[in-house]
Amino acid sequence: MQTSEAIARRKSTRDFDSNRPVSKEIVDTIVKAGCQAPIGANKRESLHLTVCTNQEILNEINRTTAAAMKTEERDFFYGAPVVIFVSASDEQMAPGIEFANTGCVIENMLIAATDSGVDNIYLWGGVQALAKNTELCRKMGIPQGFRPVSAAAIGYSKSGEAPKRELSLSLEVNYI
After folding, report:
1. 134-145 per-position pLDDT tens digit
2. Count of CB atoms within 10 A of residue 73's CB?
């Protein structure tokens, strides 16, 4: 698949088939793509990836998130069999750069997932509640001094393959 085709076909999936696993080879390819993302000042040590396939941990994150948001419990990962968390070091070279760096890593992973025929979604909300739960972060192996910023959920949609689309201008653009 051409890069532009993968970008055009990528869509946010909210109906993963939790019984259909993603192969380790494909997950590794997706993670490697994330590792190729541009990072401010090339400070790669400022980010950490956690690949979670443990449903008990994901359920615990769901409970933590629902409690923090004061809502009833639901699946914030939409049934995805794999969730890749991107955590940032507390020590960053500029305020907010961890969000830009994390966004680049996740976008690379989402495009690689689409290219591999794997559906995906960028996650932020539920991850913020996790970031406040130091015990759960420790249980997940997130290094001390790091906090989860965002995540990519990957798997296969119950509703099938995304329709082919072309790249288009969907944001307002001006040229000067």
Report:
1. 999 999 999 999
2. 13
